[in-house]
């Protein structure tokens, strides 16, 4: 777990360095206020990695907003529901950064909180690697961990997002 937190921290630091290094170029390309707000909905089927409960399959749904503040860096905010079996799940809220290292290829990191449907809370962190497919689709592979004082599971999921905004 310490290794994953270290990876997550490095991703955020690299995103900030990348933003600073390219800020002059990005500002010359397009004024910051001209990037539109993007809204999407997603389905995220996955598998359990850390088996704390008797569940193998995960199904999540979420809605996310994204706003670029340069040509290659965007912030994200999302809310959703992740179901680890028919008996329990998490209501989630996360915020993060998305860094594009090619026009449609990105790496992202998110942190947030989850409310366990049976009572209790968990800190959530997620890292993902994804692509923008066409103008409407966003596909990513993500690792997401639900951490707290008790042992909650983690997952690897394929996030299939569809952009609702223009």
Describe it for me?
The chain has helices spanning 2-21, 23-29, and strands spanning 37-50, 57-68, 73-83, 89-102, 105-116, 121-133, 137-147, 154-163. By secondary structure, the protein is of the alpha+beta class. It has 2 helices and 8 strands.
Oligomer: single chain
The largest sheet, given as strand count, sense and whether it forms a barrel, is: 8 strands, antiparallel, barrel
Mean pLDDT: 81
The largest sheet has its strands arranged as: 1-2-3-4-5-6-7-8
Compute the gyration radius: what is it? Answer: 16 Å
Low-confidence stretches: 1-8, 19-28
Strand content: over 45%
What is the H/E string? Answer: HHEEEEEEEE
Distance between the termini: 39 Å
Relative helix content? 10-25%
Q: Which structural class matches the secondary elements?
A: alpha+beta
Write out key terms for the chains shown.
single chain, 166 residues, alpha+beta, 8-stranded antiparallel barrel, elongated
Give the topology, please.
Elements: H1 2-21, H2 23-29, E1 37-50, E2 57-68, E3 73-83, E4 89-102, E5 105-116, E6 121-133, E7 137-147, E8 154-163
Antiparallel strand pairs: 1-2, 1-8, 2-3, 3-4, 4-5, 5-6, 6-7, 7-8
Brief characterization of the structure:
The protein is an alpha+beta fold and 166 residues long.
């Amino acid at each position: 777990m310490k290794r994953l937190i270290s990876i997550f921290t490095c991703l955020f630091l690299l995103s900030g360095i990348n933003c600073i290094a390219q800020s002059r170029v990005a500002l010359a390309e397009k004024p910051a206020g001209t990037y539109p707000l993007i809204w999407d909905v997603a389905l995220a089927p996955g598998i359990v990695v850390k088996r704390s409960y008797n569940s193998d399959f995960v199904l999540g749904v979420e809605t996310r907003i994204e706003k670029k503040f340069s040509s290659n860096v965007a912030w994200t905010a999302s809310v959703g529901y992740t179901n680890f079996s028919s008996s329990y799940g998490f209501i989630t809220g996360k915020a993060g950064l998305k860094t594009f290292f090619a026009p449609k290829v990105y790496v992202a990191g998110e942190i947030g909180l989850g409310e366990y449907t049976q009572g209790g809370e968990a800190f959530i962190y997620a890292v993902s690697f994804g692509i923008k497919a066409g103008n409407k689709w966003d596909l990513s592979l993500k690792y997401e961990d639900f951490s707290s004082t008790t042992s909650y599971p983690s997952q690897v999921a394929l996030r299939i997002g569809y952009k609702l905004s223009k």
